[in-house]
Amino acid sequence: SHLLDDSNSIVIETESLHGTWTNRVGITSANGWNPGWYWPAVASLIVISILLGMLTASTLVKSQRHRDLVESMIPKKAIRKLQRNQTVIEKFNLITIFYADVVDFSGVAGSMSSV
Q1: pLDDT band at 101 (very low <50, low <70, confident <90, very high)
Q2: What does pTM read for this prediction?
Q3: In this structure, what DSSP letter does residue 47 have?
Q4: Who's near 8: CB < 8 A, 6+ residues apart?
Q5: Which tens digit of pLDDT belongs to each residue from 17-32?
Q6: What is the sign of the dihedral through the CA atoms of 6, 8, 13 and 17?
Q7: Which residues contact residue 71 at a Cβ distance below 8 angstroms, ignoring those fewer than 6 apart?
Q8: How far is CA 97 from CA 35, 67, 90, in A?
Q9: DSSP, res 28
Q10: In the chain, which residue ranges form alpha helices assigned H by DSSP?
């Protein structure tokens, strides 16, 4: 039953300015204090945690693959300088290599029409 009785509650008497108050406190459900949504909430939390872990792992893998790609195209010395926002110029006897990052190149190139 959903009513409080002597088998599932206790009576607490409290004195106040307006007399004695009798309060009955107890649990009516067989589950006790655990709500019915407790286990579905735990399962949902586990699923969300697994998904967030997978997203984090994929982001880390993507970042590492990006780093590997950049390192395969540009010398490590040049990468370190670019990370410090320094200009990278390497000179050889017959050639000069200049690595540059053009600000907003993708935006400008996307707005241009092909020739």
Answers
A1: confident
A2: 0.50
A3: H
A4: 26, 27, 28
A5: 989 999 998 887 776 7
A6: negative
A7: 79
A8: 68, 21, 5
A9: -
A10: 38-73, 76-83, 105-111
